[in-house]
Amino acid sequence: MESLSTIEKLKQLLESEETSDELTVIPADTYVRLSNYAQKLRATTGSSNEDAPGRLARKQLWLMEVMTRRLLQIRLAKAEKVAAHGEAQPVRSSKSLLPEERYIDDMLRQLAKKEERFLKAVVDGQSSFFTLVQRRETQRMTTVRISKRVGEIMGSDLKRYGPFEVNDVARVPMGNAQVMVASKQAASISSDEY
User: Fold this and answer.
1) N or C: which end of the chain has fewer CB within 10 A?
2) Each residue's pLDDT tens digit, 115-169
């Protein structure tokens, strides 16, 4: 995918994927090249996105996002196949996906397993499952950035946390983090962000 024709090549990949019943073979560096091109587009716009080149770059970035999202959705959907034995549960076949796509596919598998456990607990009358989930969720640790000075707090796990100063980054139980965020004492941050 050369810079001048990146959008057109992405369009061709998408059209090829849309018209094929099976996963198509796409270049191993597809997403890296798209990301690199997006980085170049962002660099060319500078601080003023209102000029013609800035508007054109924003339009290209929007097109890339829409087409990349569609390409990924189609490829992940193709990777999911119903088992040949007539099982109700879909079986994912991710061997033809790129590693970046398998990363998303793995998350979708984990989500599907959690959803099945959840529904099974409802149908089987396993209310203890929900008690465990509630406890696990309130004690799960998360990362927050402190926005107001906070004194020492007692965590939902009965451990002490703090005191915290503005802009401190802290790992606290989810239940405490929710209270801190709701009271604007902290903001949630992704673990990928820090």
Assistant:
1) C
2) 999 999 999 999 999 999 988 887 799 999 999 999 999 998 889 999 999 999 9
The dihedral over CA atoms of 20, 21, 23, 27, expressed in degrees to the nearest 10, equals 0
Nearest CA to 186 out of 172, 159, 140 is that of 172
Q: Tell me how crowded residue 186 is: count the other CB atoms within 10 A of its CB.
A: 26
Distance of alpha carbon 159 from alpha carbon 103, whole angstroms: 34
**pTM of the full structure:** 0.66
For every residue of 68-137, DSSP letters joined together read HHHHHHHHHHHHEEE-TT--SSEEE--TTS-HHHHHHHHHHHHHHHHHHHHHHHHHTT-HHHHHHHHHHH
